[in-house]
Amino acid sequence: MGKWKVFAVCVLTTLLAATGCKSSTQDSSANADSAPSVARIGDFRGDSAYAHVAAQVAFGPRVPGTPGHDACREYIIGRLRAYGADTVIVQEATVKAYTGDMLPISNIIAQYNRANTRRILLAAHWDTRPWADQDDNAADRDKPIPGANDGASGVGVLLEIARNFAARQPGVGVDLIFFDAEDYGRSGGFYNHNDTWCLGSQHWAETKVPYTSGNLPVYGILLDMVGGRDARFHYEAFAHENAPTPCLKVWSEAKRLGYGDMFINTIGGAIIDDHVILTRAGIPTADIIELNNEVTSSFPPTWHTLDDNLEHIDPHVLDAVGQTVLNVAYNEKTF
Question: Band of the pLDDT at 49, cuts 50, 70, 90?
């Protein structure tokens, strides 16, 4: 996750120029623990998602242009093919980072139930930050992060969802996009450097492969930092304002599944993430992300540090997020 949080929800930025302001107070009853009122659909397994996270971390940092990045790319493609995707598309490009570095990137796209014209989109980024610029130890701040949560967690959940789709096809078309070069942005200010982040999704938005203007998915769900211990997920302000339908679907389904204590029905802040690019490209997209941690009042304490490792990943959190998204996908109907 490579962006800077704005604590005042109604602050506008360059990319959020069209965002209106809404009160951060919502129905507090959604925060209470409750017994599940709906059944789990499919066979989502948090330990399987965790195994995918561990496999990615074992490759080392997945910074574009490194051996770990190349190995992870092949791993994701191989899993998607093994899990019966109708089509796997690899959008390759070279993009220029704010540092002047030319980054070889790959956006990976998998389609399920390809013939269905009504589609939804699930997304995550798979690269990792080149620098642990938030680490307490100044000597470590030029080292790449392991990216267990910030990078691997969203990918791990999507791959486990793909395994479920191989066993039981969704009723609508579902596309998975794994964006590259999300986390190579410039630190030091939310306002001035927005366009240095999300380079993979920005490149994708220029072509919107494999879509035309007439067959875009009706909505999207982005997963970013979805595996941290004791994680709680609040609404992101831009998504809450500009993608209310997928936000409502996700948070309502989480509550029905008994995860209302994890999916908090209030706005937690405003950030730049791939969901902003997707929404501006015509696919209103919710963002499941931990952005209001109880300790930091921002991102998790491991964010952009060398502590973003497997020790701080909780399979139960992966399971809660994955089952919620899987239920939403399986409940979606063709109209």
Answer: very high
- CB-based burial of residue 94 (10 Å sphere; 0-12 exposed, 13-18 middle, 19+ buried)? exposed
Dig out the tokens for 107 from the structure: 């956006």
Which has more pLDDT, 2 or 320? Answer: 320
In a domain, 9, yes or no: no
Residue ranges making up the domain that contains 104 = 28-331
pTM here? 0.92
Is 20 contained in some domain?
A: no
CB 65 within 8 A of CB 103: yes
Mean pLDDT score, 296-321: 98
Number of structural domains (the chain) is 1
3-state SS of 203-262?
A: HHHHHCCCCCCCCCCCCEEEEECCCECCCCEEEEHHHHHHCHHHHHHHHHHHHHCCCCCC
CA distance 65 to 47: 30
Interval 216-239: pLDDT, tens: 999 999 999 999 999 999 999 999
Neighbours of 75 (CB within 10 A): 19
Task: Measure the CA–CA gap between 219 and 224, rounded to whole angstroms.
Answer: 17
| 3-class state of residue 131 by DSSP | coil
Whole-angstrom distance between the N-terminal and C-terminal Cα of the chain?
35
Confidence of residue 1 (pLDDT cuts 50, 70, 90): low
Asked if residue 13 belongs to a domain, the reply is: no
Per-residue pLDDT tens for 10-36? 333 333 333 333 333 333 333 445 578
- Looking at residue 265, its pLDDT comes to 97
Cis amide linkage into residue 61, ω under 30° from 0: no
Q: How far, in whole angstroms, is CA 73 from its chain's centroid?
A: 17
14 belongs to a structural domain: no
Query: Which DSSP symbol is given to 30?
Result: G
**Residue 298: CATH number of its domain:** 3.40.630.10
**Nearest-angstrom CA–CA distance, 87 and 130:** 31
Say if CB 108 and CB 77 are below 8 A apart: yes
